[in-house]
Amino acid sequence: MGNLAIRICITMLSQMLAHLDPATPEWIVQLERLKEEVGNMITSSVTSSLLERLHLIDALERLCVNHLFEEEINILLMQISSSNNVNDCDDVHTVAMWFYLLRKHGYKVSQDVFVKFKDEEGNFIAKNPMDLLALYNAAHYRVHGEKILDDAILFTKRCLHSMLPSLEGSLAREVKCAREIPLPRRVGIYEANYYISTYEKEGKVHDMIVQLAKLNFNLMQLQYQEELDIITRWWKDLQIQSKLPFARDRIVECYLWMLGVYYEPNCSRGRIILTKVISIATIFDDTFDSYGTIEECELFTKCLERFYFIWELVADELPDCMKHVLEKVFQSYQIIEQELSEDEKYRMPYLRSFTEDLVRNYNREVKMREESYVPKSVEEHLQISSRTGACHLLACASLVGMDVTATKESFDWISTMPKMVLALCTILRLVDDLKTYEVINIYLSSPSLGYSIKNDIFSDVREQLTPHVASSIDSYMKQHDVSIEMARFMIEELKEEQWKDFNDEWLDPDSAQPRKLLEAIFNLTRTMEFIYNQADNFTYCHNLKDTISSLLVEAFPVN
């Protein structure tokens, strides 16, 4: 880990802890008053035009105040979904917004609503950049076999690319961001600060909603800072820097990552547990990747499989630092279990089982690396690598801290590795491999250029150049005997196919799982796209500085 990256994270953490002040009673009083007034506004919007109602819902969600109005929004969505207005609507922007929001909320509305916007040659009748952007975003909720949506993405991507140089302001930013990560795959809470500032500046929504969003953001931020204080004290107790000098100190980034899974104030326990689990997974990753020998990793795996059962008796041959990891992991899982009520403790065996599976697959990767083995196909590669991204563990952990929404049936479901979880794991692996290749190629082609921050950042890249397990790109090249450029293109296509799998289960009307549970898994997948966008933001944590600051440090001035 580069020294500069360490300094950035320490500085950000110090700033955050310095801002730990109790929320003023005036803020809470103001928020409740504004909440009532905005709630009335939503209820009375039934007489507004379809587009106005759609924009209202979209604004509430982008400003991250939608959790305050779940019932009102759901009623509005049901009214919108059952309305025939969209069939008579000849405005592509309105229809695209309708399609986007309904699919976002799990309504499997038909792609056929876009047929009327295609000409005889198959091109879409849309020239306005806002119309194109709305269609582009909506189409990314596609599933397999939806050719109209596939065509819409190709068409709008081409048009928006040619238009971008002539666009300005927030629209230019929206198009640029959508081309990097389409709106359905973006993490709302990471962008809330930007949208509050932009909507206030441009007057896009009623000022009352903006003021509510600012108050709500500030109050949530205070809670996030308190949670981070709890987590950092736990992290310091692990003695990572003194006992495990090879391990990355990424506790702030871990919290930021998991904050994207559920940001709502009532999810505090879930965020804390989830952050602890991903931090533990990071320690495992570094232990297997950067420290342990093949024999030590094998023994470590056997010890972990025992959990509380006399693991010390078989750990004598492990280095002290690896024993320390095991001891702290077992202690941390005991703490997590203590935070659960008696009727929730059934969740822990599921968490331990997923943890054991992760470590077994880390161990398998070590053997692959030591043997310089390149799996013969992407499918063979993903049998292991889709598990070592730890996403299946995180999906399980996201349920552990939930309220009654998560049931034993939910844990049984997730233990079957359903299509949604498999897609999540595969998306992470493919995105990680694609971005790792990208960053390493920048370094190899110009080790003295590229990033403005040179030696500290590229020290992280140099770590990536040490012997590593073969990537899915390597396996694709071997399987199909193609160039790296073709392999990267096809891996990108495979990632898109996985998103279709994911959307298919998201839109399954027969799903027995609660929508809030599926939403957490969806958000976990969204965070993967953010964390690995352009470069591995988790490895090169300087990229996250602005997001950390805007979300966890910078409060809004309020009247």
Q: Can you describe what's shown?
A:
This protein is mainly alpha-helical and 559 residues long. It has two domains: 32-211, Alpha/alpha barrel (Glycosyltransferase), CATH 1.50.10; 238-552, Farnesyl Diphosphate Synthase, CATH 1.10.600. The chain is 68% helix and 0% strand. It has 26 helices and no strands. The chain has helices spanning 3-18, 25-44, 50-62, 70-82, 85-88, 92-104, 129-139, 147-163, 169-180, 188-202, 207-237, 240-243, 251-259, 268-291, 294-306, 320-338, 347-370, 378-388, 391-400, 408-415, 419-445, 455-464, 472-480, 484-506, 515-531, 545-552. The model is unreliable at 1-7, 449-465 and 536-542 (pLDDT under 50).
Brief description of this entry?
Pfam families: Terpene_synth, Terpene_synth_C. The protein is 68% helix and 0% strand.
Q: Which key terms come to mind for this protein?
A:
mainly alpha, 559 residues, Farnesyl Diphosphate Synthase, Glycosyltransferase, 2 domains, single chain
CATH fold-level label of the largest domain? Farnesyl Diphosphate Synthase
The CATH superfamily label of the largest domain reads: Farnesyl Diphosphate Synthase
* CA-CA gap between termini: 42 Å
Average of pLDDT:
89
CATH top level assignment of the largest domain: Mainly Alpha
Q: Structural class given helices, strands, pairing? A: mainly alpha
CATH architecture of the largest domain: Orthogonal Bundle
Question: How would the global form be characterised?
Answer: globular
